[in-house]
Specification:
118 residues, mainly alpha, Four Helix Bundle (Hemerythrin (Met), subunit A), 4 helices
Length: 118
């Protein structure tokens, strides 16, 4: 754990745990009693398009939520193996200010910038 003090690590771990607990952890579709997925009771071609769009949006949101859950769990697991705060690409330290902004960050600023340029 590169250059991070115990108090900093505790703060970052708490932030990650809070974000993880704020997300529903079900592996299924979002809020299984909600109106989504939308019923197939359709009356016109416009209704069919709306239903398809709403179902697609619900699936996209569920996929995004699962990706967030996975990313947060992965970051928390790094505390256990001692690799939290290490860049996955170059092995260097990820700065504390970056980790405060994005506690789940996997790359240091330099590596993240290179990855975004590709």
């Amino acid at each position: 754990m590169h250059g991070l003090e115990p108090a900093q690590l505790a703060q970052l771990k708490t932030a990650l745990a809070l974000r993880l607990s704020s997300l529903p952890s079900s592996g299924s579709a979002p809020d299984e009693g909600s109106a989504l997925p939308v019923s197939d009771l359709e009356f016109s071609p416009a209704d069919k398009a709306t239903v398809r769009l709403l179902n697609d949006l619900a699936l996209e949101a569920a996929g995004h939520q699962q990706a967030q859950l996975s990313m947060l769990r992965r970051a928390l697991a790094k505390f256990d193996d001692g690799s939290y705060g290490e860049c996955e690409e170059c092995g260097g330290a990820i700065g504390y200010s970056r980790l405060q902004a994005r506690p789940e960050a996997r790359l240091c600023i330099a590596c993240q910038t290179r990855a975004e340029k590709r």
